[in-house]
Each structure stands twice: as structure tokens, then as C-alpha cells.
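As agreed, record minuted below.
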Amino acid sequence: MAGHSKWANIKHKKEKTDAQKGKIFTKLGREIAIAVREGGSDPEVNSKLKDVIAKAKANNMPNENIMRSIKKAAGELGSVSYEEITYEGYGPEGVAIIVEAVTDNRNRTAGEIRHIFDRSGGSLGATGCVGWMFERKGLILIEKKDGIDVDEIMMLAIDSGAEDVEETEDSIVITTAVDSFEMVKNTLTESNIEIFSADLSFIPNSTISVSEEDNERLEKLLESLEDHDDVQNVYTNYEPEEN
């Protein structure tokens, strides 16, 4: 499980940073659009939409924004057609990178993502070029707050089918198989456990570090990808050196 909790912790902090910059609202609006397109606008019967709404509220997205995104996706306020695209590529020293994007213009997004890779010493590859280095897993993050019972949460997660539970300095990180993700998440929710985020994610089978010389270029590449408006998630097998 090397690198899993560290990767999750980085993602956790990154989402908080995005929320402060306001960029996460745009990304969440697109997630809502995809969820509505796939399962309708009623969160009580569309579990994916329900999850995105919970995620939006956790990131302090106003209810007005959430409802406007749902209505727009349902065609009540005009509509924009979004599609999900996954890109794979390499960073400096062959670091593997997977990028999940949601776009209304496939050609524009592909060109911009390729440019980001090229200018940072990386390269965009063909589908499948690095995907074999990752596993698709459910990843549930719970913030450690005053009064939270870590042992109880760990037992609930394991009993409901979680593959792994790890405790970090500020989080509880729960990893599941794809087919048990919903069961574990629902068990926690029904037990009134507040979930910070719950997503299907790409987890690297192993992690690598890079030389100090290429570290700055790689960090800039990952940051540029994460900051792109169409990019929802960035996964990598890069593990930063501990200070």
C-alpha cells in the first residue's frame, strides 16, 4: 500500500486549496452536469449526484450554485454538453500521470493538455500507456475532528468491506474495491460519519521519486494540470521526498 495515504493526504490538501481559490466550484459544476446526464436530476435516486452534492457542500459551494448547476444540466437554464475524457502521459524521468477531464470541446482540451505536458518536459501518450501502473479503487477521506472515534470508523469500514484503512495526521483514509465502494460509503453515511470526499480513484501500484533537478519541473507540470479548468483529477506515481 506504499504511497496510498500520502497521495490521499496530498489530494485532501489540494482540494482545500482549490476551494480557497474558487476553482473547485467550476469543477464541481461540471461533475454535477455529468451526474445529472447519467442518472437524472433527483439526488434521492441518483447516488452519483447525491455524492457530488455532498462534496460540493463540504467545499462550501452555495446551495444556489448547486441548484443552478443541476437545472442547467437538466436543460432548464439552457444546456451545455460535457463529456469525460481521460489522458495518459509521462512527466520528467518517466513519471506516470493520468488526467481526468470534463470538457465541452474535446479538441481544445486535448491541445491545451498536450501543451502543458510539452512545456514542462513531459509528453502526452496513447491510451493505456501508463494505466497499467495503477489500480482503480474507491477512496474515502474522513477528516479527523474533535470527538471523532477513529477506532469505530475503522471497524465500520472494515466490516462493510473496505480493503484498507489508514490513519494519517489529519485524516482517515479508506480504500475499497470498486464493487464495494458504495456499500462502505453508505454504511459510514448511515452511521452519521461525515465524509470529506468519496471518489473512484486511480491508485499507483508503486511510487517513484525524481532527482532534485527535475523535481521543480514535475511539480510545475502537476500544478498546471490541476489548475486547468477542464481537469477534474490528476493521478501520478510520483512521491515527493520528505523534508
